[in-house]
Write a structure and sequence with these properties.
Blueprint (H helix, E strand, L loop, with lengths): L1 H12 L25 E6 L11 E17 L2 E14 L7 E5 L11 E9 L4 E11 L7 E12 L8 E12 L2 E7 L5 E5 L1
Antiparallel strand pairs: 1-2, 1-10, 2-3, 3-4, 3-5, 5-6, 6-7, 7-8, 8-9, 8-10
Length: 194
């Protein structure tokens, strides 16, 4: 879904200017490279959304691998998948961790965090998104599934953000009882870089 959305944004924002930059190895000055996510990000689920109100989340991004490097309607696009660990309910009674890996993209496309950035070449404007798909592959009870997204986000400048507001859903099945929390765009999970 994020890649399709980025394609729509790219085609919509494409200018009639046919000048081409021979340096298609760069995503443009306004796109942030893969290293902006490297490090530890922490946050807490909104207290207004149940279940899981006030649950602490930590994501440690260790490294990135370039998985896409192409053009969409003449606009440079790059995407990176990351290696690291997501921890749910940090320090809590139900703490759970799962590794995500570059090698998991695009198949099986689970336990993957993908950051994609596309530059509208005519105006040198970057648009980015993050897709986070983490699920239990080691246990079935309790079973966790975390599907979150950020973007599409028009990058405001060359300095990367230090917070990410994710929307999406979290599901936990414990003892055959499924609990689900939805985080709509107006009530997101904010993670802050530590």
């Amino acid at each position: 879904m994020p890649i399709v959305l980025m394609t729509v944004v790219a085609v919509f924002s494409c200018s009639c200017d046919k000048d081409k930059d021979d340096d298609n190895n760069q995503t443009g000055a306004s796109c942030w490279g893969e290293n902006w996510l490297i490090g530890t990000w922490e946050g807490t689920t909104p207290s207004t959304v149940t279940p899981f109100a006030g649950t602490k989340i930590r994501i440690v991004f260790e490294s990135a691998g370039l998985v896409l490097d192409d053009n969409v309607a003449g606009n440079p696009r790059k995407a990176w998948a990351y290696n690291g660990t997501l921890t749910w309910d940090v320090g809590g009674a139900d703490e759970w961790s799962m590794a995500f890996k570059t090698a998991n993209w695009p198949d099986p496309d689970i336990n993957v965090i993908l950051y994609e950035c596309l530059t509208a070449a005519a105006i040198n404007q970057g648009t980015a998104n993050i897709s986070l798909r983490i699920a239990d592959t080691l246990q079935t009870d309790p079973w966790h599934s975390i599907d979150l997204d950020w973007g599409p986000y028009i990058l405001p400048g060359s300095t990367p953000e230090t917070s990410i507001d994710f929307y999406g859903d979290v599901e936990v099945d414990a003892g055959g009882t499924l609990q689900r929390a939805d985080y709509p765009p107006d009530n997101r999970i904010r993670l802050i870089k530590q």
